[in-house]
Amino acid sequence: VTTDKKDIPLAAMERLLKKAGAERVSEDAKAALRDSLEEFALRIGQDAIRYSNHAGRKTVKAEDIKLATTK
Amino acid sequence: VTTDKKDIPLAAMERLLKKAGAERVSEDAKAALRDSLEEFALRIGQDAIRYSNHAGRKTVKAEDIKLATTK
Asked: At a CB cut-off of 8 Å and minimum separation 6, what does A49 contact?
């Protein structure tokens, strides 16, 4: 699975980095964080889908996401 | 560090879960994924800030983010 178009807005990355305590954030840092988050989301998503199928569902629920993030 | 307001839009979570292969996604699944991503982003951000300070900078750069995501 690849992300052609970017899904998470860079402005959200800047807000999160400021919340983490950053004074200044470069544009490429926001893009790097977004890439890392999208990769993480796809990995979690694929696991969560497997868990939902395993439970006999076609709908991914929060419990699938939670199981995927804690394993 | 806590996220009071949510920074990443839920629509982005739905797009990423669909890219991962999900047929259907519940609202609470999107929220759970967002929470998990924001927590991950804050952890990465705090490490990246430490690395930027260590390099004598006040600006977080992509190299700090990359170091934080690979350690």
From this structure: A60, A64, B17, B20, B21, B22
Q: Which helix (H) or strand (E) segment is B60 a member of?
A: strand B59-60
Q: How far is it, in rounded angstroms, from Cα B49 to Cα A18?
A: 10
Interface predicted TM-score (ipTM):
0.91
Interface test with B, best of A13, A27, A36 (most B CBs within 10 A): A36
Within 8 A of B55 by CB-CB distance, chain A residues are: none
Chain B residues close to A38, C-beta within 8 Å: 16
Q: Note the pTM of the prediction, 2 decimals.
A: 0.91
pLDDT tens column, B3-56: 456 889 999 999 999 999 999 999 999 999 999 999 999 999 999 999 999 999
What pairing do the DSSP bridges indicate for beta strands A24-25 and A59-60? Answer: unpaired
How far is residue B65's CA from residue A33's CA, in Å, rounded to a whole number?
A: 6
**Cα–Cα distance, A34 to A11 (Å, whole number):** 10
